[in-house]
Every structure is written in structure tokens, then in C-alpha cells.
Amino acid sequence: MKKLILSISFAFLLFSFCHAQNSDSIAMKRIYSEALTNGKAYSWLYDLTTKIGGRLSGSPQAAQAVEWARKIMIEAGADSVWLQEVWVPHWVRGEKESGIIIQSNGIKQDVPVCALGMSVGTPKDGITAQVIEVHNFDELKALGKEKVKGKIVFYNHPFDQTFINTFEAYGEAVKYRGSGASEAARYGAVASITRTMSSSDNDFPHTGAMGYNDSLPKIPCAAISTNAANLLSSILKADSKTKFFLKQSCQMLDSTKSFNVVGEIKGSERPQEIIVVGGHLDSWETGKGAHDDGAGVVQSIEVLRLFKALGMKPKRTIRAVAFMNEENGGHGGKKYEELAEANHEKHIAGMESDAGGFTPKGFGLNMSDDKKQAVRKWAPLFLPYNVYDFEHEGDGSDISPLRKQGVPLIGLHVDSQRYFEVHHAASDVIENVNRRELLLGAASMASLIYLISTYGL
Amino acid sequence: MKKLILSISFAFLLFSFCHAQNSDSIAMKRIYSEALTNGKAYSWLYDLTTKIGGRLSGSPQAAQAVEWARKIMIEAGADSVWLQEVWVPHWVRGEKESGIIIQSNGIKQDVPVCALGMSVGTPKDGITAQVIEVHNFDELKALGKEKVKGKIVFYNHPFDQTFINTFEAYGEAVKYRGSGASEAARYGAVASITRTMSSSDNDFPHTGAMGYNDSLPKIPCAAISTNAANLLSSILKADSKTKFFLKQSCQMLDSTKSFNVVGEIKGSERPQEIIVVGGHLDSWETGKGAHDDGAGVVQSIEVLRLFKALGMKPKRTIRAVAFMNEENGGHGGKKYEELAEANHEKHIAGMESDAGGFTPKGFGLNMSDDKKQAVRKWAPLFLPYNVYDFEHEGDGSDISPLRKQGVPLIGLHVDSQRYFEVHHAASDVIENVNRRELLLGAASMASLIYLISTYGL
Lengths: 457, 457
Fold this sequence. Notes:
Two copies of one chain form a homodimer. Chain A folds into two domains: 36-91 and 254-455, Aminopeptidase (3-Layer(aba) Sandwich); 94-249, Glucose Oxidase, domain 1 (3-Layer(bba) Sandwich), CATH 3.50.30. Helix content of chain A is 39%, strand content 23%. Chain A has 14 helices and 15 strands. Chain A has helices at residues 2-38, 41-52, 60-76, 137-148, 166-173, 175-178, 180-186, 226-238, 290-309, 331-342, 369-376, 379-382, 419-422, 435-455; strands at 80-92, 98-102, 108-110, 113-115, 127-134, 152-155, 191-195, 221-224, 243-247, 251-265, 270-280, 316-323, 346-352, 360-366, 409-414. In chain A, the strands form two sheets. In chain A, strands 3-2-9-5-6-7-8-4 form an eight-stranded mixed sheet, sandwiched between helices. Chain A has a seven-stranded mixed sheet with strand order 1-10-12-11-13-15-14, with helices on both faces. Chain A is elongated, with a radius of gyration of 24 Å.
């Protein structure tokens, strides 16, 4: 008798499981189909990037983007939309930078250059100094003060093409952008220029945040394009006395008030359990912030729109956030976590899209092993959408402050082959975003959030 | 004792297996790294598309491309290179086509239009007739002769965005291009125009092969861009008497002699066992044939180059083929099979890349179940390269004639989201090909061929 009851229970469980799987796959099919046919993320991104454009923290464009995001969240159907005040650094690029290679025979060549974000400017008339090329910090150290003093250090560290995931090549090279200026200053350099971290050779210099070591002199630093780096390196081989002229008028102004934009759909059964999904609204102003990270913002708002358009009422609360100031401070993400803590909010999951609006391939999972297993049991539901990789970690810098609250964090992982051609460069524009790829990412995010909102995590 | 021997044998087998797996993964890492750092496929494709351009069968450009491919195969290090004579149809587009929407109030609008490949031309002064819009053949049939006679049939069949694999949406829509003209002629139409099969709305008309039913009148047919189709459809809703003017001077000339280009590396242990890998050299002349299928050609030649550059001596023979005439006849593929049969060649596998030079995601397998299992046991070796899908079928039209010899056939499967934005259109240019994506495809092909050449299939 007991055996029979057990069998019946098992059959019931199996039935429930199959039924859930089936209703979940139907729900996901609806989400993907709605996104691909009526999705708004692409047209929103078109507006954001062409009508507002690049939007660095503190800029008038960033302020416009806050208003824009508020409006779009309402349009998407959020139950409520509000702003979170965030104070942000206000760095400005000033006039267009100038970089000139000056050979010892007097021949000059203009090359594409841009100040690294947060760098100090040069004196008004620029800096001219002999160039010393290094490929890494070890070479710099070996040269020492004697050979570096009074010169411009040229970090010509190549992007390692052998990594399949281009983020790994970026991660390995980015330290020359981040701390190259201070390391050069340690040995008496007057400025530093860094080879752009890009997977392709072209004429776009890529900016990005750097930081100073406060115990060392603050020298100006800039990025030069990969083509310019190749040119400068070949000229230096023939003429070691080659000089470089760098002029940039960037400067740091007073901190400015800005905002995170938050929109949510209240959960129908467990409204106190929050799933947050976001991207960052600020972007470098060298480009239009299309992939980085307008994509993540419009995908997150599209998640709200999909639930509303399909009449899906999530059991748990879903909150989309357009974070401010990811690029040069991270103050939006920190503020969000502080407020969550102060308001005793219970976040059951955080998700971010900040790797570009490319074809999704999986989700990075940063959570306990048992929660990873819980997410991985949903993986088969994603296979029809070519989303197959749930094995790696990696979430997102705006949601990362929530780690200290123990919130399970998730990052949308996408095909990374094209990202570092446009990242922080003038080529980060809507023309380099594909509508279907962007919307597949949004549908994948909405699908995983649908599952978490239904079953918890 | 027997047990011990068995255990030792098993241990030995296990050791051999692990050793093979390990040496294979090392070989594959070398292949991918060499491709991503020194790969030539992208620069070859740059030359093919910018110096020669579009190259339809029978054109002077196709003849130049044959010479080019011969030269590149030698440069890649093929042991021997030869041509296979192929007679091909010679269809020419003539002067630029003209398409004008003429409303009954006399307002005229030029719209982007191009003749479908193999279509007849219009009379010299064009055709002007009232337009009748249908979405499918059932609607056409329901209208019947009475409503269709003397008119231009406008097939406005939308590309179904809900398919995740865009080839499925294409496959479902392409019949209106292929046989739309004859079906319209069946009911007395004087011409047909077809909505471009594209996943995005823009101003590029996409050409492609059509065919006539010999028992019906041959009427001219053309493609109009998706934007033009949307415009025409909205105008027709308000003004059903709207006419269309179509003028095209395309025509069929006499068949022409052309060639497949073949290059091979002889196998060191079983030279009589051949693995053929190819793409097609001909392309529509509306664009430059970058993704379709210059990509497949340069990837196939890159396979040879990778073996040579890495000093890998394949046990079995590897043969790269640049097939002629895939787009409008398929005579190159047929000829290759005929010669293989006539020469008593033993092909152990055929592989094709003809889905665009995008990020690879797997291989389509068209072979017996036991051979599929043999290939699938290698799948884990590909996971570090994000190549994970070995579950589907689909090979390639140039290698498909080899099916009748029972040759196991393989197609490179790639991310399909962008393909039907450029397919057969003016946008199929090198600027829309990403170097790393193209080379990852070539490395994936070379890796699977390395495994087959080592272990057989």
C-alpha cells in the first residue's frame, strides 16, 4: 500500500514537473516571439543614442538620459517609476585632443588619440617629450628612472587574440590603462600613452577609466589607436629619438547630482521578494554608448514591457534599473545597494547586461553551488534559443555591491567577438547593433526572470 | 590472471584515450591560436571582395576569381592545385532596374528594385500594370484569373521573425521568389514583384535564383526592398488602383565555360581517403559576395594553410574546393561529384561553409546514426571554443551531390541573426564581416577535419 502511495506521489510529482516544464516552455516561446516581433528595445536604443548620444556622468546628456529613461519605463508599463539620487564625479574631456609623432628628422604625423577618463590635462601648450616603448610593467621597471625620467612612456601591450572570450584578453591588458600613468610617474615620466585595447587594427582610440596612485605625481595619460601604436612602434625601431606631442584639456570639476532610474512591476504573490535587472545609463562620450551600455538599459526595460505586453503577472517583484556612473566611479550601483539595505529590502536575485547587445549564449552565475544547480536545471528550456552556457561566473559591476547582502547574481553572457572593436570608442553606435541580437538578449533575460519570479531562487 | 590482464588492457585503453584526448585538445588549441593570430582568411576575403567584387557565373569577375583562388591555394601551401571544367549558365542583369509606384492620382515614387536571378527582362520600355497584393499562394489562387489577369502580382510575404534560426524563416518564404513568377503567370499576370526575404526593414532589394515552369508563360519578376514593400502595401490599402512600373533588361546568354578550383594536401598514411571542404566562389553581383560565400571559400583555403603553417601532416587527404555556380545552377557541385565517381575516388567526408562568416556554433551532420555518434564523441573538445551544437542536420548545396555516394556530409553552423540582412544584397560586403568570427569558423572546420583525418569517420 505504501509502495502504491509512493508511486502515485511520484507519478503526481512527475506530472507536475512535466506540466511545469511544458507551461514554462510555452511561456518562454511567447516571450521570445513577442520580443522578436514587437520588441521596443532597438527603437529605444536608436532614440537614446541618436537623440541624446554619449552621456558621461555629470554631463547635460546624462541628465537628459535620466529623464528619457523615466519616460520609457512608464511607457513600458512599470507600475511605479522613481529616481534615486546619486552624487557622481564630473570629469570633462574639453577640446579635442592632439597627438603628434615627431621624428628626429622633424617629420610629423598626427595620430588618433584620446584622453583616458579621469586623467589630468596637459599644460595649455601640450607636452613634447621623447618616447620610451614598453610592453609591460616588468620592462618599465627594468628601464628604471634613468631611462624613463622626463619621457613619455608608451605602453604597447597587444590584445591577445588567442583568447576565445575577448573579455579575458581585455582583462589581461586593461591594467596598463588603469594604472599605467602612475607606474610611469613612479620612474619620472611626464606622460603616458597606451595602445588601445581592441581586437582589431583601426584608427579608433578607445577611452576608459584610469586611476592615480595618490602618492605619486599625476601625469596626463591618453590612448592611441591600434594603427597609431603600430606606426609609432615601427618608427621607434628606426629612430629611438622620436618624440611625441600630447595636448589634452580634460579636467575634473565638482561632483554633480545625478540619479539611478528605477521602474518596477509589483509581484502578485510575494511582492517583498525583489528581482533586480539592470544596465548602466552613463557612457563614454567618445561614442554614443550603444553597446556599452545603452543595450543593457533598453534590454532591462524591455523585460518589464514583455511582462506587461503578454499580460504575465509575476509572482515576485521585478525591478529594472538604469544605473548611473558605472564608467567612472560606480556610485549608482553602490547607492542602490545602500538604499536596499536601509529600506530592508529582500533581493532574491540581481541580473545585469553589460557585455554588449550581442547574441546571448548563456548566463554567468555568481551564487552558492545549490542555487547554481537550481538555475542549471532550467538550462534545457533555453537550448531552443541557443542559450546553452550556465557554467561560468561573472555578473556585472552595478549589481556587484549586492554581493555583500548575499544576493545571487547573474550576468547575461553574449558572443564577445565584436565587443572590443567598439568598446569606449567612436564606433559604439546604433549602426553596430543588430536588432535581433539585442532582442534575443532581452528575451533571454526576461525568460530567466520569469522562471525565478515563478519558482524563487 | 585474466582479470589482471583485462584490467591492464583497460588501463592501457584508458591511458590511450586520455592521451589522445589530450593531444587532440593541444592540437586544436594550436589550430585556433594560429588562426586568430596569423589567419589569412580575412585579408584574402578583403582582396576577393574589393579587387574583384561580385562574381556571378559566366562573368569576367567569376573568371578572375578562378585565377585568384588558384593563386591563393598555392600561397596557402597546397601540395597540388588544379581546375575542374564546368559549364555554367550565363545570365546577365543588364542596365540598372527601375521600379516606380504610380498612384491613381498620378503621384509617382521610385523604389529600390532588382531583377530576380534568371528572370526574363521586360519589354524595352518596361511594363506598367495595376498591382494586386497577395501574402501567399492560397490568396493568389482564391483571386483567380479574373482578378489577376493583366496585373502585376505583389507577393508581400513577411519574414517570420519568431524563428530563432533565420534560415527557417528564409526557407518558409523563399518559394515566392523561386516559383512566384510562374504561379502568377498561371492566372494571367504580366509580371511579379516579391518582398525581399530579409530580417530587417531597409532599402536593399535582395536578389536570388528563380525558376520558370516551362508549361507557363515566362513573365519578368523582381524583388523590392522591405521598406518599398511596406510602402506599396500601405498605398494599396488607400488606393487599390495603384500601378507599378517595372523595367529590367536582364537576359540569358549562351552557357559559358568556367571552373571549380581544387587544392589538396596529400594524406601521409591513407592518401586515398579524401576529406573535401569547400564553399562557393560565384556570388550575386548585387553585392560583393563577402558572406555568401567568399567566407566559405577563404575558410576552406585557410584549413589548408593552418595544416601547413603548423607543420601538421594529415594522415588522410584534405582537399579544399572553391565551387563554381552554386547560386544559379549548382553545376560546380554536380561536376565535382561526377569526377569523383569517374575517378573512383573515395571520399570519407564532405564539409561546406555556406551560411556566412559568422561566429560558429556547431556542425550540421548528415550521415548515418553511428557516424553521428562518432562525431558527437568529439563534441567536448569543441566546448572551449563555444562550438556546442552537433544535434542538427544541414550540410551544403555544393557537397550535396556526394550524398548519392553515401559520403558523410557536414555543414558549418553559425550564428544566423545577421545573415538575411546582407544575403544577396548590396550590403554583402567585407565591412559586414568580422575578422575573428570568420577565423573562428575556419579554425572550427580545421579542427573537425584534423580529427577526421586522424581517426577516420
